[in-house]
FAD/NAD(P)-binding domain-containing protein (Sorangium cellulosum So0157-2), 396 residues
Amino acid sequence: MLRQRGEEPLLFPLQPDPIENLVDRTESPALQGLGAPSYDGDMATETDDPRLTRRAWLQASAALGTALAVPGCASGCGASRPSSSARKANMSYDVVIVGGGPAGLSAALALGRARKRVLLCDAGARRNAAAEHIHNFVTRDGTPPDELRAIGRRELAAYPSVEARDLRIEAIAGARGAFQITSAAGTVEARRVLLCTGLIDEPLAIEGFRELWGRSILQCPYCHGWEVQDRRWGYLARGAQSLHFPLLLRGWTRDVVVFTSGAFDVPADVQARFSAAGVRVEARPVARLVAREDRLESVELSDGATISCEVLFAHPPQRQVGLVRALGVALDDDGFVRVDPVSRETSVPGVYAGGDLVSRMQGAILAAASGMQAAAMLNHELTVELATGGGPSGRE
């Protein structure tokens, strides 16, 4: 198992229990006929040379026999790779997708249209659970998150090779071509696994932060800035490297305060730009967030002074969900899952990833595009394998 990279020091402390926004959730059995619902290597680079492009697409093929074992799986999950005939006899799905948000739904749609047997597993907890609407999603601007997922489920129903189940995946074992995916409902097999599990945002240990998260505390002005434009905004800066962000916020309001809690110095040139833009800097430590009727009213400082503030932007630390960490896939320096830029395969052969867990650029439409890309790359390799004798096509 690959070691995880350490997290960088935090300027604002974390609350001991994180916001559990794992995968977009819905719970029920994974296997047909079961009971009622229960809920690094070097990376290839793109090139115009078609021979090198094909090599990038198929670079993981040489690792076909590499085994994967996840802690906590059933006895024997780390056993030797089964024979080809055994895999063919026991295969249940071409692809199991873990996560039923925009990335997972988009991936399932693409794979269904490619006539692959797909199981979409949705455990329910989602990053945008507190958000009232999704924005910047063309044709779906202003759609509630639950409604977007329901629309996606309805569209998947048109493809008989796709099953969408409401359950949490507990363990993944096996190897590329013959994975065993376990939930409380049982174990299924799949040739490939696609992770669309999102991320966990860890709340800062500031009184009121958890309660206001997703309503008055936001991450993305493109997603929610229009609805709260021209109000009093603040930004919880966790380091000097993030001081470009308050200037961006000026596009939606003239009233912006940067809260540094005195944890770092603002460089003179940045301070000059802040002054020119009318952005204020508050270095006194933040003590708590004052709300009225579940909406932010002010930021109280350590000396008891208060700063009027209606909207607070923050970028708390993020971490991968437990299942992803247990798989041991390689992470980059920022903690995102490292994927091949062409194939979208992780460091574990046969395991692919798409959506928020692979990129700092996060949003519903971006996750959907990432899921689609991962599905297309996965399907390309899998189709070649099946067409050249790797097993049944999944179109029966």
Notes: The domain at 209-314 is CATH 3.50.50.60 (FAD/NAD(P)-binding domain). Residues 115 and 395 are 6 Å apart (CA to CA). The chain has a mean pLDDT of 80. The longest strand covers residues 186-195.
